[in-house]
Write a structure and sequence with these properties.
3 domains; 424 residues; Heat Shock Protein 90; five-stranded mixed beta sheet; elongated; 15 helices; alpha+beta; single chain; 7 strands
Length: 424
């Protein structure tokens, strides 16, 4: 094997393994903390597989080593049963074989592919990558679901451009296969680097959105802690002067001045009321979310109606609850900010494992829909889109249902979640 062929096979193997693991990620979820760093695992799979190919040049042996290496990698790096991991590896390898067959069926008669087998292999990897991108989009995988259409167009341009460059290299290279191999190797490196950078940009973007969600969650808790601290101060002050209060009330009652006694009690109650504490269910998570959102609504001069019946203990995952209520109320506040007549109604009830949420708000009568989805009017549509998508995922997780009703000036969303079924 020529040096240029060896270099190309090594670089091409990187692309093949990268594409294969992209397919694995469609089925499996990465572990939060792997025993061995992922880069080390991927490098071992690549190096062993390429060395077997280089020294033995046997298709069956090479495919077998790749399958075994990928299976071991999934055991080390991914969650799931062994059967599911085996299925993911088989699916990745099968898709590679299918892509290669498609290329040779469609273009096998072309002289350029008959002359240069490496170019055909490269084309099949590009097709494999394109199919995986489509699968990721269709299956709404988080890492790519928020990528714009322009980004997908850029990837398609890279793939098509690589194919065109490959054909040009073969035509210009003539009988100089070494030059062609070097050129194809460079194309492989560029493509792998582009896909890798593309992934890292998306990961960084999602991490930023997650940090923003955590920041809002912290603000909710800080707001609730301020309310609790103020309540504690009021109770402490009341307790300090309790004897004086009781003595004065008793004196009013002794003189049959019940009106004055009642008025004094009312004054004490007003003193105990904290302006920003709009609800107090005893459920720390719900109180934090609702008081934070209601405080924002009141600053907008919004009329609020509530009816909340929930236990004073946690009854579902806190993050899921925060995603559902936080995003729905944030949407309502967005709509309220665009209308003069501001009304907000929130009804919540939890009973026997069933959680029902009904939120209605006034709006200016303008709705933007794309298919069955409502689209935000905020400039940061991608960040807001993530919130709406997360709400849908939570509803699906709890086998729930969503219903939306609209009039000319009111928007109402009703959600029912079967919490007990998930907890079991």
């Amino acid at each position: 094997m020529l040096i240029t062929e060896a270099v190309f096979s090594a670089v091409f193997n990187i692309l093949s393994i990268y594409v294969a693991f992209r397919m694995v990620k469609l089925i499996l979820t990465c572990k939060d903390e792997a025993v061995v760093p992922p880069v080390v695992v991927y490098f071992c799979v690549w190096s062993i597989n390429w060395l077997i190919f280089y020294f033995f040049n046997n298709v069956i042996l090479t495919m077998g080593s790749l399958a075994l290496g990928m299976l071991l990698a999934t055991i080390i790096l991914y969650e799931g049963t062994v059967v599911k991991k085996l299925l993911s590896v088989i699916s990745a390898l099968a898709l590679g074989v299918v892509s290669e067959n498609i290329i040779w069926i469609l273009f096998g008669g072309l002289d350029v592919l008959l002359i240069n087998m490496a170019l055909g292999s490269l084309f099949s990897s590009f097709l494999n990558m394109f199919i995986i991108l489509l699968l990721e989009k269709c299956m709404q995988i988080k890492k790519v679901e928020h990528v714009s259409s322009k980004s997908y167009l850029n990837i398609v341009i890279i793939i098509v451009g690589s194919i065109v460059l490959g054909e040009i290299l073969v035509e210009l290279g003539g009988n100089d296969q070494s030059l062609v191999m070097v050129g194809l190797s460079i194309i492989c490196i560029i493509d792998v680097s582009t896909y890798y950078i593309y992934d890292k940009i998306n990961e960084a973007y999602l991490q930023r959105l997650e940090r923003e969600a955590i920041k809002q969650r912290v603000e909710m808790y800080e707001h609730q802690l301020d309310l609790m601290e103020q309540s504690h101060k009021n109770i402490k002050a009341l307790r300090h002067d309790m004897k004086k209060h009781l003595y004065l009330i008793q004196s009013y009652l002794d003189d049959n001045e019940t009106d004055k006694a009642q008025q004094y009690i009312d004054n004490i109650n007003e003193h105990m009321v904290i302006p920003s504490q709009h609800i107090h269910t005893g459920n720390q998570e719900i109180d934090a979310i609702m008081n934070y959102m209601f405080d924002r609504a009141i600053r907008m001069d919004c009329k609020i109606e509530t009816h909340i019946e929930v236990p004073n203990i946690a009854f579902m995952d806190k993050m899921d609850l925060n995603i559902i209520l936080g995003n729905l109320l944030d949407n309502a506040l967005e709509a309220l900010g665009q209308t003069e007549e501001r009304q907000l109604s929130v009804n919540m009830k939890y009973k026997k494992g069933i959680f029902v949420v009904k939120i209605s708000n006034s709006y200016d009568g303008t709705l933007i829909k794309r298919g069955e989805k409502y689209i935000t009017r905020k400039q940061d549509t991608e960040s807001h889109g993530l919130g709406l998508q997360n709400v849908s995922e939570i509803i699906e997780k709890y086998n729930g249902e969503k219903q939306i009703e609209t009039t000319s000036n009111m928007f109402k969303i009703s959600i029912i979640l079967y919490v007990e079924a998930v907890q079991e």
